[in-house]
Amino acid sequence: MLRPAVCAAAFLVLAPAALAARPGLAEVHGPTGYLLAQANTGAYAYPADGSVLHIGSAAATSAGVDLRDVRLFRGLVYADRVYVPARGFAGARVEGLVVAGRGEAGAPNTVLPLGGSSYLVALQEAVAPGQSGASAGLVGLRVYVADASLGVPAGTQLLVGVARAAGAPAAFHSRPGRRYAVLGVAPTPFPASFAGTPEPPALTPLAAEAGAVGARAVSIVERYLGIPYVWAGADPVTGFDCSGLVMFVYRQLGISLNHFSGDQWYEGTRVPPGELAPGDLVFFHMGSNGPGHVGMYIGNDQFVHAPHTGDVVKISSLLDPSYALGYVGAVRPY
Question: Which of 164, 174, 150 has its CA nearest to residue 72?
């Protein structure tokens, strides 16, 4: 709602092929979802100097995962304690959370920017792609890295406090070839294939006109109806989240958007309600970091969006009370 070359090749070479089959209490996944490193019980540092991830102590029981003195990116993110129960939200907490020198509450599903399009999400439920929506439990802190400014390749994800490490179903950690990341990165250690995904033709001068661009965006977004929702997803192979869907569509039209609905709120011209046109971005549920949800208007009071975990890209109505009451405005991104 969440959008490099630094040592990318070295990461793939050094990634241990025989990492423990059981999920780690914290995990680092490369841009294609490959598991680069995982923390188990005790203190932990990645790499050796702890510049990316430092954990003072980590423990897991059947009740949950408990991490203390957590530092990410040389202290850009700090938490006194991250506790994630094995099941459900009850008791989950992030204590003493400080991001870029500012104290944060760390409430469930809080999205905090880390500079550029990188972001952190606190206490977010995860769903493993390809597992028919089966829940992998809560993740205490998830970081999505959008560019190389944090010292790791763009697309890297850190999952800190992984509930499934406390005793997830065996399907999540014992099946060969299934050691892929949750939350929207690719399920394979190589780039996902887009075979069978139609590409739009190149823009013509006529298509550069405003109405034509919006209509083209609608024709593209409707191809992805039925694609599963996945946090941080930004392609039809692994799934979409709300901002990833509109970002992916407009990228095909040569228009660059960030992978965060709070950024997309500022990436265009405001559109009054009476002037909505197909292709406009519609936003809902304003928070401290901007709107928490985005979709694409397609006309007749309808919009396409990726709603939430367990759902798929679909068409909804702006007149539905759940959206009408949360509507905050629209942006034309071209």
Answer: 150
Rounded to a whole number, what is the distance in angstroms from the first to the last CA of the chain? 19
**Amino acid at site 40:** N
Amino acid identity of 185? V
Considering only the C-alpha atoms of the chain, give the largest distance between any 2 of them, rounded to a whole number of Å: 62
**CA–CA dist 235, 240 (Å, integer):** 6
Chain segment 211-270, per-residue pLDDT in tens: 689 999 998 998 888 899 998 888 888 889 999 999 999 988 889 999 999 999 999 999
Which residue in the block uniquely carries the two structure tokens 């709300």? 242
**290: which strand partners?**
287
Q: How many residues does the chain have?
A: 334
| Tens digits of residue pLDDT in 278-330 | 999 999 988 888 899 999 999 989 999 999 988 899 999 998 888 888 899 99
Round to whole Å and give the CA distance between 295 and 333: 12
Instruction: Spell out the SS3 assignment of 205-261.
Output: CHHHCHHHHHHHHHHHHHHHCCCEECCCCEECCCEECHHHHHHHHHHCCCCCCCCCH
